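Exam revision sheet. Question 4 asks you to relate a sequence to its structure. Input first:
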Amino acid sequence: MACGPHPRPPSTTPSTSVYKRDGWGLVYTNLRVPYTVLVRYLAHDINFAEFLAEVDVKVGHTSSYRTRRRAYRKCERGIAIVWGCAFVARQRILAENITHRILRAMGVEPLIYPCPGCAVRHHEYFPLLQVGGLVGMERVILAAIRATGQTRVDKIVFDESGRQIRKFRVS
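Answer key, structure tokens:
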């Protein structure tokens, strides 16, 4: 009989407890558009449907929107990053995790590609059309935030420079 601590049994259910560094923050979206596709669309070489087929959407979390935008500047080599909106979440990391699980349950797999700017393999990008566009992504994020037990959710819209344009309650 071996002495020592017993191994912890594996967890069979996903944890609903707060992650250690989780807390109030934002669950945000941004779009990734290759410059070549953007140029072809602006030159009318491809139509809007073909353009949208090449756009990917990311869902992420942050406690500081300004810092997150600054960190993405290095990722913009050959890619246009278009920032969308953000939702205020009490448990931002858990809400993002649930969002990814919902998307995978819908049959949408994340795109894994090496970033040309920072060499990190980003795992949070999903094909825009497969998630139902920005409206579909926003609905999934709201469902994920509500799944954490939060009932009142605020949406924040930013301009191109990252300044807050509008904040309003969505539920």
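Marking note for examiners. The beta strands are 25-34, 56-62, 79-89, 111-114, 121-127, 154-158, 164-169.
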